[in-house]
């Protein structure tokens, strides 16, 4: 598992921030492949139990 981020815990975790790419970097890398028509931005993230 070298180079893979994970957490060994009994608690349930559904996300590891290091697993996600920065969307602005991804879009910049793909600028020759896509036409941006809309840009969505997260306003709030609500999680409950």
Quick overview:
The chain is low in regular secondary structure. 14% of the residues lie in helices and 0% in strands.
Describe the overall structure.
The chain is largely without helices or strands and 49 residues long. The chain has one helix at 23-29. It contains one helix and no strands. The protein starts with 22 loop residues before the first helix and ends in a 20-residue tail after the last helix. The mean pLDDT is 78. It has one domain.
- Global mean pLDDT: 78
- Could you tell me the strand content as a percent range? under 5%
For the largest beta-sheet, the strand count, sense and barrel status come to:
none
Uncertain regions spanning at least 5 consecutive residues: none
Class from secondary-structure proportions: little secondary structure
Inertia-based shape: flat
Helix share bin = 10-25%
How many domains comprise the coordinates?
A: 1
Helix/strand order: H
Q: List how many beta strands DSSP finds.
A: 0
What gyration radius follows from the Cα positions, in whole Å?
16 Å
């Amino acid at each position: 598992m070298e180079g893979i981020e994970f957490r060994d815990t009994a608690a349930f975790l559904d996300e590891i921030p290091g697993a996600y790419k920065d969307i602005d970097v991804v879009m910049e890398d793909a600028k020759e492949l896509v036409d941006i028509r809309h840009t969505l931005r997260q306003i709030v993230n609500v999680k409950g139990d």
